[in-house]
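Sequence in, structure out. Go.
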Amino acid sequence: MADLAPFEGLRYSDSALDTPAVLAPPYDVLNDDERDSLLERDPHNVVAIDLPVAPSVMAAGGGVASDYRDAGDRFRQWCADGVLRRDPASLYVHRMNWICDGQERSTTGVIGALALPSENSSLGGPTLTPLDILPHEQTTPKASTDRLELTRATRANLSPIWVLTPSPGFAGLLHPTGDPVLDTHLGGTRHRLWVISSEVEITRISTALSDHPVVVADGHHRLGVALAYREESVGDGSQVEGADRVLALVTELVPDSVEIHGIHRLIRTWPTEADPIDVLGQWFTIANVDVSEHELVPLLETKDAMALITARGQWLLRARPELDLGTFDTDRLQHALNRIGASEIGYHHSEKFVRQEVAGGNAVAAVLVRPPTISQIMAVANGGTRMPPKSTFFSPKPPTGMVFRSLD
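Output:
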């Protein structure tokens, strides 16, 4: 079951900096130009620590050891200089408001230190099983390596994983009073943050979570890194005090609390000389479709299909019913790509972006995939299986830089 505890959060000093200028979207949605722009806006922007190398370098395998050492030194210097201030042990209520399909939506969650699964914890933390935190996706090794190097260097959780709780009515418990310590807009979403230091409130919130497991919405890499770092600290005898927990945002598992999008595939190079239509026809029925761009994605659900985009046009891909290709689009497509040896695969949640990549000659083809539903994600997680990497894109994304958690 979920175990959430308060922690002594590190936050940007209210008096020292322009808070909106130091926040950033999550590291894995930024490109090189966006990172540079954030640093030009304010050299104390969180990407100076959380993204110490350019995203293109990270995608190619990560930086060198000195890049991560510099990030760690910078983090500690900000603490020493008062750029970052330390709170008393607290939880943090985070509220997001945004517009979806013309309607205002809101979700309220709590940020705390979530206990990691550990049936035989060597750090004195709570005893949990892997069923208390349920992932639903596999991860890719490159990003995990980068995040582990950064954790070693900073000895901190710089951004929260995002988990969903099935605890009924949990969001209704989160009614902070007074002015928020942060109130800003980022990427069209309003973000507000309140510090909760009352022991009564902390106990009430933690107790409401304790009867249920949580399912990971976003942050599979960071969860895997936290587990690896915990075991590493035990193995080398360093016994890092805070390594038994990970920074986490917990929101209630209800449909209107999040948006779930598919992460589309970019096939950068085609591994054979054969026409992609002919090759994919081994696994899918393929039909050319002549609709506008804004009509294509809604059509996928009604046709139980993916969409193939090439320079020659667009086609619907429907899994051949006589083949067992899996339940989800990402399963079905991965089955085919593995068998034809397609290894140069890119990922992006924006249909506009993947279309531009194909039109610009930077990819042979793109495949638009549909996202799973929340109930499907829960079923996968509870069943102990995982979807292929990059199967879901949750939004709106909580920004990085609202609060950090030191592991020391």
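Check: The longest strand covers residues 103-115. The two ends are 25 Å apart (CA to CA).
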